[in-house]
Amino acid sequence: MILSFGISLLLMGIKFLAYHLTQSQAVLTDALESIINVMASGFAFYSVSLAAQPKDQNHPYGHGKIEFFSAGFEGALIIAAGIFMLVQGIQHLQAPPELQALPVGSGLLAFATLANAVLGYWLVREGKQMGSPTVSADGRHLLVDSLSSVVLLVGLGAILWTGWYWLDQVFTFLLLGVIFYNGYRLVRESVAGLMDEADDTTLQQLRDALQAARRSTWIDVHNMRVQKYGADLHIDCHLTLPYYLDLKTAHDEGKRFEEVLIGASSHRVEVFVHSDPCVYQCCPYCHVKNCAVRKHPQTVDIPWTIENLYRNEKHFSEMDAPVAYVRDDVTR
């Protein structure tokens, strides 16, 4: 993030130099957004530093949520800058400035665009590896900024080719559309993280690991919830085990279950497992061999899916038809 901040500062200077040479409103729009890049990189550095701090008494789940706030802050800055650029663009419709030195300005902008794209791609890759929403958001912002700069370069080329200087205003408003969309997307992702919106991609990854390591004593898994705290995951769920297991055996089964979930992610994972005793409605899909208390034969094989992992109910039992699930707190 220190590298991102330094490069963003340098590229901002290059873009403003390009505007000084060309007097293009579209180039100014791109340069103004670079101010947001610098501010966002600075705040992102602070956020990542804070998120890396260990848990404490005031923050028992750690400080990772600051990363979602950082992404939302960056999106809000982008939208605010877009509104300012929109006002400036409308004002220049009445008195458009005279364009000049377009070849030199285009060359400077092309260099800044390439540097932004390389930096953005690297940040997105690093952010995914670390599971950091802040680093990924900063990288995606730079990639979108690079895309908008490509559009701008096309516009400057069109102006040089045709001599139609009014195209500068057209590409200004096209860039504003990209800027507003990027800002909205970052705010949307930030709110989703802060509100603990379900992440089906992460849950599918955990489900695949559990299905591959499934043991016969793990009768079903339900009420699984996954919360993200920056790069850290907090998982809690209910695991149905044979009711006759002694406390130590049940604890060992739960420990094996936790190890599968921890091994399914490359990030730090905290797991809380609530052990449920089986009920007779579980018999039709229970795979425990030679069960001395079985009341019904095993007749169905229920694969674990996102749907039945989410629900706060034991899995389907044909003994309960047409009721598809058995709640933990109700015997039916």
TrEMBL record:
Membrane topology designation: Multi-pass membrane protein
Residues in Cation efflux protein cytoplasmic domain copies: 199-278
GO cellular component, one term: plasma membrane
GO MF, one example: zinc efflux antiporter activity
Domain Cation efflux protein transmembrane stretches: 1-195
Primary site of residence: membrane
Record keywords, A-Z: Membrane, Transmembrane, Transmembrane helix, Transport
Pfam families linked to this entry: Cation_efflux, ZT_dimer
Residue ranges of the TM segments: 34-54, 66-87, 99-122, 142-164, 170-187
GO biological process terms held by the UniProt record: intracellular zinc ion homeostasis
Localization, UniProt: Membrane
SUPFAM superfamilies named in the record: Cation efflux protein cytoplasmic domain-like (SSF160240), Cation efflux protein transmembrane domain-like (SSF161111)
InterPro entries reported for this sequence: Cation_efflux (IPR002524), Cation_efflux_CTD (IPR027470), Cation_efflux_CTD_sf (IPR036837), Cation_efflux_TM (IPR058533), Cation_efflux_TMD_sf (IPR027469), CDF_Transporter (IPR050291)
NCBIfam families listed in its UniProt record: CDF
Family: Belongs to the cation diffusion facilitator (CDF) transporter (TC 2.A.4) family.
The protein's name in its UniProt record: Cation diffusion facilitator family transporter
Species of provenance: Catalinimonas alkaloidigena
